[in-house]
Amino acid sequence: MKKKLLSLILIAALGASVVGCGSTSSASGIDSEEVPKSAGETIELTNVSYDPTRELYAAYNELFAKHYEEEFGQKVEITQSHGGSGKQALEVANGLEADVVTLALEGDVQVVADAGLIDDGFTSEFELDSSPYTSTIVFLVRSGNPKKIYDWNDLIREDVGVITPNPKTSGGAMWNYLSAWYYFEQQGQSEDEILDSIKKLYANVVVLDSGARGATTSFVENKQGDVLIAWENEAFLSLQEYPGEYEIVVPSVSILCQPTVAVVDEVAKKHGTADVAKEYLGYLYSDEAQEIEAQNFYRPSTKSIYDKYVFTADSNTITEIPADGKWINDNVNLTDINHFGGWAQARATHFADGANFDSIYEQ
Questions:
Q1: N or C end of the chain, less CB within 10 A?
Q2: What CATH number does the domain located at 137-256+313-361 have?
Q3: b/e sequence 254-292, b meaning 16+ C-beta within 10 Å
């Protein structure tokens, strides 16, 4: 993972420097990025995404470039940028020129929309609330599960060191927090009791990284902590890269994570890429793309493809990548963001300045 990650980081850094350079002018004085590409000219597209999608989009971009050239006769070159989803949203809102965003949650895309860059109604532009794939939250522990961590209540024990990213900068971290909240709520705790349980959990956090990939690095490569609260796909990638060293524990309850995609309308209009940007995101729903998503351990939205990857679980512990490729454990109680009143309400209650997260972590 380290070699692959290094190369992808270098690509992302290069992409960030390219999109940060601003417009270029032609000899006629016309901003060349405002002119649509002519036939035969390579189209440049920038996708600003969140941390754990590096491998997914490395594969998808190859598929899409081939599809677009075959379908429309033009080459497409896609530049990727990755980081904590909340941080990425702020970067785009503050001038990082993304043609599309593929962020960890609707609320982060809304930040870009609130900056006047995305038209209203972006969750209706594509199917399933513009969420072409989903994920959930699981635990990654070391082989043999030496601390016997099986559910959320184990994360508040005094002998357990937790790794999770910061909800102030990471969308995945918000999903982590809400999953834990839901668990303690399901245990019948009052709001004050839930806040106390969440406070104990974050008191056990060894490292609060800015993004999900950084948290994975802290746990997997730097050997910090006893458990990583992780995106499902991140946990499976660790099993794939380090066979025999880690195990996935699927908690009794979790949350359906719905990453959201959107065309950054104002930038796409400026670059003349609105049509290719819409095709780029729409093609994520194609059967070919859905297979790539499933192979990268995201839950595909097409039911027939989803069902191909479901297995019957007899344990909540996964020790290796199944030989038959069936990796989706359907035997878990999943809530969703609607349980928390939607993202606007969830942010206001839990993640805004002075809200619940600040009250339990900054004390």
A1: C
A2: 3.40.190.10
A3: bbbbbbbbbbbbebbebbbbbebbbbbbbbbbeeebbbb
- Torsion angle, alpha carbons of 154, 50, 87, 180, to 10: -20
Token output for 150: 């099986």
Confidence band for 20, pLDDT divided at 50, 70 and 90: very low
H or E segment to which residue 81 belongs: strand 76-81
Query: Is 70 exceeded by the pLDDT of residue 255?
Result: yes
> What is the model's pLDDT at position 9?
35
When mean pLDDT is compared across 142-156, 184-198, 322-336, the lowest value belongs to 322-336
> Comparing 2-134+258-300 with 137-256+313-361, is the CATH topology the same?
yes
Give dist(CA 58, CA 64) in Å, integer: 10
Please say whether the dihedral angle defined by the alpha carbons of residues 7, 12, 17 and 22, taken in this order, is positive or negative.
positive
Task: At 356, list the tokens.
Answer: 């619940």
276's CB contacts (< 8 A; 6+ apart) are 43, 45, 68, 72, 74, 76, 99
- Architecture of domain 2-134+258-300 in CATH? 3-Layer(aba) Sandwich (3.40)
Neighbours of 308 (CB within 10 A): 16
Cβ(256)–Cβ(243) under 8 Å? no
Q: How many CA atoms lie within 13 A of 197 on its CB side?
A: 22
Vertex 116: Cα angle to 114 and 121 (nearest 5) = 70
Query: Taking Cα atoms as reference points, which of 47, 48, 229 lies closest to residue 154?
Result: 229
Q: Which pair of tokens denotes residue 38?
A: 């002519």
Q: For Cα atoms 244, 247, 250, give the angle at the middle one, nearest 5 degrees.
A: 160
Q: Which residue ranges make up each domain of the chain?
A: 2-134+258-300, 137-256+313-361
pTM above 0.90, yes or no: no
Specify whether the CB–CB gap between 251 and 316 falls below 8 A.
Answer: yes
